[in-house]
Amino acid sequence: MSLQLARAEKADIPQLVDLYFNTFKSPLVLRVKPDVPPVREWYKKSLESDIEKPYTRIYKVVEGQAGSVQASVEIIAFAKWSSPHTEPPQEKFTEWPVDGDVALFEEVTGKATEKKEKIMGQEEYWYMGVLATLPKHQRRGAASLLMTEFCKQADQARHRSYVEASPLGRPTYQRFGFETQDTFSVVIDGEPYIDCCMVREPQKPS
């Protein structure tokens, strides 16, 4: 069956939560977002909030007949990104679950925010927040479908794009024109964990 790309719907969120926790197994994610019910519930609520925001785009990839994404019962990949926007002053992110390593989360968030502000400044940009493919479906082109759509939207808007990539995810972003501008690291169980701050320039349609 062919792979089909479509906007995710609210009814897809339980599957997206499962996909997220079945995909991301890095030392950082396992410490910050352990796969336990309270953290899964936190992530479900965050997706429910995000999917209602006009500047957030959540796309899914499913297997199905051409032109009929409903033919599939399994979402094999998804991505979440945002277009340039200004957060409402009153908006506050859902409180972080205590089941995760809150101190590590705050350290990573602080370093990531500092690097992003240093690199991007006050300019408008597109931000890739999540790109996930189920391990058993990797190397089939699902991530490429999602990245192609993301790049198309960013290029049409003529904005640069930004992502914080793990060492494992970095090659995928490089294939789509992202370049590493800086890195930041944290120590987990005595070992350094490095994230790459990557930027993509908008490209003219061919």
TrEMBL record:
Gene3D superfamilies: 3.40.630.30. InterPro entries: Acyl_CoA_acyltransferase, GNAT_dom, Trichothecene_AcTrans. This is Acyl-CoA N-acyltransferase. It comes from Lineolata rhizophorae. Keywords: Acyltransferase, Transferase. Residues 3-203 form the N-acetyltransferase domain. One of its GO terms (molecular function) is acyltransferase activity, transferring groups other than amino-acyl groups. The keyword Calcium does not apply. PROSITE patterns: GNAT. PANTHER family: GNAT FAMILY ACETYLTRANSFERASE, N-ACETYLTRANSFERASE DOMAIN-CONTAINING PROTEIN. It holds the Pfam family Acetyltransf_10.
